[in-house]
Amino acid sequence: xxxxxxxxxxxxxxxxxxxxxxxxxxxxxxxxxxxxxxxxxxxxxxxxxxxxxxxxxxxxxxxxxxxxxxxxxxxxxxxxxxxxxxxxxxxxxxxxxxxxxxxxxxxxxxxxxxxxxxxxxxxxxxxxxxxxxxxxxxxxxxxxxxxxxxxxxxxxxxxxxxxxxxxxxxxxxxxxxxxxxxxxxxxxxxxxxxxxxxxxxxxxxxxxxxxxxxxxxxxxxxxxxxxxxxxxxxxxxxxxxxxxxxxxxxxxxxxxxxxxxxxxxxxxxxxxxxxxxxxxxxxxxxxxxxxxxxxxxxxxxxxxxxxxxxxxxxxxxxxxxxxxxxxxxx
Length: 330
Fold this sequence. Notes:
Helix content is 38%, strand content 25%. The strands form two sheets. The chain has a six-stranded antiparallel sheet with strand order 1-5-6-3-2-4. It contains eleven helices and ten strands. By secondary structure, it is an alpha+beta fold. The longest helix has 26 residues, at 49-74. It is a peripheral membrane protein.
């Protein structure tokens, strides 16, 4: 985005030109000169801005799902939000995270390769303390995790993959499987050092403890589904969902749905005393005149006027008029 000058800066610039401190011709010359932008081939930008925005939307949904999941599991205040989405070399990402941390490596079937969820030790131990009945205090002892602690964390983060699967369901049906938990990033080599990865940073608060959760997505793993991360593809998908064949299928299903139609010959009111003394052969007088049309109810609502008659020796009614109230309701 270009810098926007304030009114004070504009006034100072005009004043400098009018007093001769700045030359307008030199300014024009600078504008006409080609601007050179330095490009670092080690930091190849292999994801477009459109794809980065799509990844950001997907993981904003993932953050909301994680907030709900951890709130239910830990029974304490949890807040998770996306703070940044950056693309950088894998080596640079590895150097940026702590030397001892919680690294959850999982395989996103059917995609080839591995993805990484790095959880700051402060956050990981606050979760562990809550699961074991504590207040959610954080004690950084990640270098010597016990087998029990590793097992508990593994089960906790294994279930977060369900939320990851749901967040990605609009793009691809993933079946992520937890592969291992590592604590030293130097022992973890998922891709080549210069491979471009997208790092989604999630700001996480568990009770009174705050930290970061980083999702590392290598370009080589997402390469085959990158076209699906464009807005153009999503618009095409929405059009496909409204295909005429699907609309016709819905219409046929609705047309086969049963609907109750009733023709009222009239109504009458009698007292309880008269009702108790009714017998065979008694006649109940209706308030419907033989010169007035009958009311036809569809699904319990008055819909038409009709006149009684016979068709093929069976009692029938002929619709004569649509009730105006029904027209207004439509």
